[in-house]
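Bench notes, afternoon.
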Amino acid sequence: MKIETPESEQTKGIFSIAEILNRTGLAQKVVRLKPKEVLFSQGSPADSLYFLQSGRIKITVVSPEGKEAAITILSAGEFVGEEALVSVGGLHMTTAIAVKEAVAQKIRREAMIRMMHEDPAFSDRFMRFLLTKSMRTQADLVDQLFNSSEKRLARILLLMAEFGEAGENGPVIPSVTQETLAEMVGTTRSRVSFFMNRFRKMGLIEYNGGIRVHKSLLNVLLHDQFSEQRPERPQELPPEI
């Protein structure tokens, strides 16, 4: 879901996009969010999209019956609310909420469309982002249909940690509630606590104010080495992990 850049360091890619937005005047304004503050709400007018410069944003959706589910958590370098480009007078299909302090650059629909026509390189980069996000959405759907909740949790932790190239351990995932993880996995908070304890006992993760994901979790997920037998139920973690 990240915008791909030719730079060797991911942070250079993030700031190059921000610099383009600032230099061209494409970004209408900078929005600063505190934790749990709403960027936009489901059903509100979708006349702008946002480029997340720092922090994390949780995307949620509410069904007609009033059931809420967390779809994903976005991080720096991603666009949010791109459905604004679809049509004039459209509505946001989801709600975007800051998980931690976040900074987003607001881009008006008309300005983004004009920029995509005038700058082929920028348009190409944005289209790659959309295609990558579409592939991620398809992978999420397959994950929900065919994988166990334990495997889904493992995959979400790896994605949130942006597990990648260097070192044995990915970055520390900022504090996130078990309720949020349960919504994203499609299970209960107690089951998330159960699996998190199992991962910790297996040496796949560690936590102390945040969650650190080890490379071993990726290996276990890829090789389908999760045990089918249920071990003795460990003591549940507190709601914040």
